[in-house]
Every structure is written in C-alpha cells, then in structure tokens.
Automatic annotation (TrEMBL), chain A:
Presence of the UniProt keyword Repeat in the record: yes
Compartmental location: Cytoplasm
Protein name: Latexin
Cited InterPro entries: CYSTATIN_LXN, Cystatin_sf, Latexin
Organism: Crocodylus porosus (Saltwater crocodile)
BP term (GO), one: inflammatory response
From TrEMBL, chain B:
SUPFAM superfamilies documented for this protein: Zn-dependent exopeptidases (SSF53187)
Cell compartment(s), UniProt: Apical cell membrane
GO cellular component, one term: extracellular space
Family membership noted in the UniProt record: Belongs to the peptidase M14 family.
Pfam families given in the database record: Peptidase_M14
Name listed for the protein in its UniProt record: Carboxypeptidase O
Amino acid sequence: MELEPSHYPAQRAAGVARACISYRRGGPNRVLTLSNVRRARLQVRGRERGPRGQAVNCTAEVLYHLGSQHSAPEVHFTVEGELGKNPDDADNKFYSRIKSLKEPLVAQNIPDSFGIVPPEMEPIRHLAFSACDYIIWQNSTENTWYNLAQIQDVRQVKRNDDYLEFDYTVLLHDFVSQEIIPWQMQVLWHPQHGVKVTQNSRQPK
Amino acid sequence: MYQIKESNRELVTQHYLGTTYEKWPMYYLKISQPTNKAKKIIWMDCGIHAIEWISPAFCHWFVKEILQNYRTDPKISSLLQNLDLYILPVFNIDGYIYSWTTARLWRKSRSSHMNGTCFGTDLNRNFNSSWGGVGTSHNCSSSTFCGPEAESEPETKAVARLIESRKSDILCFLTIHSFGQLLLSPYGYTKEPASNHQELVDVAQKAATVLKGKHGTNFTVGPASSVLYQNSGSSRDWAHMIGIPFSYTLELRDRGAHAFFLPADQIQPTCEETTMAVITIIEYVNQKYFPNGAKLTSGNLCLNLLLSVLFVGALS
C-alpha cells in the first residue's frame, strides 16, 4: 500500500527509522535529523557540528509488530555513502575534557526555558539525542511519535575503565498523545565504541 | 496591549472577552480602519497551548507589522478597507503564566478538577466539535483532557461566545500553534472532507509556497485528520462547523529538532515567514468576498435609496 509521504503514518515510521539509524551512528558530535520522506525512501541529514551537514540518502524498512505484547519495531536500513568519520577530533576533544574533570559533570534543564544550550553542553545534548533514540526506537508504535524535549538532569558517573558514563533523566514528548514522559537512562560512550544505553526506565509523571 | 492601543488609537481598540479560571481578564485587539463601511472579520488567536511559546510571540509580531506598515504598504491598507482584524495574543493566559513561572512544558489551562487533585483542560479539545470523541482523553491527568463537558472552561466560553455572536461576519478563523510546520484545514474529528475542502487546501498551498519563499521553510498542507492526527473538540473544527468558511490551524517551527524550545535566533524568521502566509490567506479572502476592489458601503446604499425616492416623487 502506497503511503502519502507527508501524512502522519509515513512520517511516524520515518521517525522510527531515523531513531534506529541515529542510535547506531550518532554521538556527542553527530545528530541525525529527518530531512525529507519520499515515496519509499528516507532522506536523512547527518549534521556534524557545523550548521549544515550533508544530506545522506537512506532506504529503510520499518516493521511494526502487531499483537498484545509490545516489541520494538524492526528496522532494516542501508545508507548511501558515509555519515562522517568516527571517531573524529571533536569526539576526542570531548572525551579528554570529560575524562579530566575533577568533579563529575552535573547539569539540569538542557536546553533552558528559552532554548539556550551552553556550548560546552552541546555534546552532552547530542549524546542524549542518540541515547534517547534507542528508547524511542524500542518503544515506538504506529500510534506514537517521540522526540526528546529536554534533559531534565544529567550526572556523570565516574568509571575506572575507558568509558564515559552518564545518568540522564530526560523528558520525552509524544506528538500523538501530547504527553511529556520522564525517562531515566544510563548511557555509556566511548569514541571508538559508540553509544550504549545499558539501562532505562520510564518514570512517573 | 494597553500601549499598543494607546499609541495607535486611530486603528486599534481593546475589547473584553471574559476572564480566565484564575480571573485574568481576556482582551482581544481589534484593528480597524475607521470608516462607515461595513466590514467583515478575520480572527486570529495565539497561545491556546501554554508550552508553544513561539505562538504568542507571533501574534505580537503580526500586530506590530500591521501597525508599522498599514499607511505605507498598499497590500495591508487595501485589506483594511474591507476587513477588520481581531487578534487574541494569548488565549490560555493561566497556562502561559504557569509555563513561565513553574513548569515550562505545561500545555493545558489551570482549572482545578477532582477536588483540587488534578489541573488543567486542553482548551483545544474543549470546543463543541464532536467534543469528547477521538483523540481526546476524559482523564484529567492527561495532556489532552477535554474537560468535564464542551465549553466547560471559562476561556473557551469567552472566545466561543464572541465568535458565535459575530459568525455571520467572520470570514476567516486562524489559530496559531507549534510545532510541526503544518497548515491544517478541517477536520480533525473525522476524515470526511469539509464542504470547501479543495479551496481550503489550494489557499493553504498558496500560503505555504509564499512562506517557503521567505526563508526556505517547508510547510505541509492538508486536513488535520490526515496530516497530523485525529482529534475532537478543536477550535478550528468548531469554527468551520458553525459556518466560518476559512478555518486553519498553523503549526509553526520547527519539526522536532528543537520542538517547543525554538532558539531565540529563529523567532524573527519564523514570525516573518508566518506573517507572509497569513497575509496571503487574508488577501485571498479579501479578493473572494470583495472582488475588484468592490466595497461594501452603507454610504452607497443611502445614496441609491435617495435617488429612487426622488425619481418616484418626480413621476407621480
């Protein structure tokens, strides 16, 4: 069945595909936003630290599992070309900066009420986007359209190994129900190994 | 609002609509070229959902644009020959204040329910347009709680009362939201097309094209139930159902990257492009109901009557 690309069923499925790809390929200096949905094709713009990234074509197949038990939609995708070098200089700089902090990083309300994000918090925010994308992908259905609205709280957890670890409480927005949903997630990141959500749980409103 | 009214007395008057739940007075601005011509009305409201901060910002910008340019811009002055603009800058005052002082992501009003254990009705689910149906919740803790009954909220009642009383003169009803970059026509409560569906979509498409010309922003056009989601009790649906021919919801920037937290440097470009879209819609309405600069003047009517009386007198 052909879907109208601009109508909500295609848009929501595209959001799921974007989330899945972004979780796999995103990081503190890479955010993947949805640029356009064409007929059965998904165009994903990889934006790397500069204001304009290249648009990269992706083809994705999204399979929602119907039934009483929820399970994450399956996403099969191919990306044409590269989404940028991994890790890059910005990743390494961020890594060194956080590793060398005397006190563990703690922050609230990113962005603030006025949409302001301090520049040194941008990678923390991008990391949250990528990590949230795992949660979004895992919890999406045909009747949801999730976005990260705001980071309510983030605390670094110091580790003895090479990984950076952060404990986030984020606020997800579901466009369909218009609900704001607090969600806790434990996030690991390493310049070579990428983003991993080790634990997550929905919080009471 | 007082300052705007005071410094533009020849064009702007402030009118009382009612009070909010927390007893703030609600006013709309009437922008009207003083003549003795009978005019039709364009209604625009902003800030029905508290969380959507770009929306009240847009109403403020739009009023400023009209007042700064009505003498020099031939487009605007020609519109004001035939049309009065009624603008409500903040529909949900209680919720908006709450989003500044307490909870940035608050959406609803601040009415009290269930013995003070639960707060707020989604004002855009509270109108009498298939109220309580698809896409709403009857649970007070929900973001889309439709209220205990249609028009239960004082804010909804205040606006509905005015619109109902002037509906034969209102040609266009615009309600401004964010986010999504959408220009939505009726209906949300059903997939059945509106009686003038094609015309509504064509005009919206025209407006979206003009909007895109300003800063390249893409807007999607279509009926809410296809483009966005199904929802009942919206003001846009209600306005069309009571006979207002042009009724649109505009969802402004962006598409989710910043969502409700639109950065400050996007406020002006968003307002500029949206102004152009709104003017395009109003222009179409003006052309349609006042073609070729025809003016509905009571002055003309009086003159015609006088002449025919004289003729009759002369003949007998």
